[in-house]
Amino acid sequence: MNSVLRAVENDLKNGFLDDVADSIETEVTSDYLTQAEDLLKEGKPGNFDHVPAAVLAGAVLEKTLRSFCDKRNPPIPVVDTNGAHKTLNPLIDDLKKAGQFTELMAKQLRAWADIRNKAAHGDFGAFSRADVETMLKGITSFLANA
User: Fold this and answer.
1) Domain extent at residue 121
2) CA distance 36 to 21
3) Please, which residues have CB within 8 angstroms of residue 108's CB and are 6 or more apart in sequence?
4) pTM of the entire predicted model
5) pLDDT tens digit string along 34-74?
6) How many domains does the chain fold into?
7) What's phi and psi for 106, nearest 5 deg?
8) φ, ψ (nearest 5 deg) of residue 39
9) CATH of the domain at 22
10) In terms of CB atoms within 10 Å, which end of the chain has fewer, N or C?
């Protein structure tokens, strides 16, 4: 048993498991986006059924941006100086400064972050089902091109 653990530890240290972790993360992300799309399909317009889809899509976006920060060389910190996790907009700003994407893309990401924040904080009248549909398509495209 110890030899198996040593082998796994060695593989982990040498980066041999990175591809597996990336594959799992991609599958989970895809599953969450599919769930968000299904929430939109199952919901009834006018009932704020698009809100959970916005929150879920925003969570996918946040996780993706954190992964981008971790993979930079050197990594971009995902916590602030107080030890709190950075929110979407600071992550977007840091990645834009690092050249991960253009200001135009950063503006689009901030718009999706705003929809997610409005959904998560109960400001349901500030965005529409169509906004969430566009957000989902945009995030899916962003991830496909990242």
Assistant:
1) 2-145
2) 23
3) 138, 142
4) 0.78
5) 878 888 887 666 678 889 999 999 999 999 999 999 999 99
6) 1
7) -60, -40
8) -60, -40
9) 1.20.120
10) N
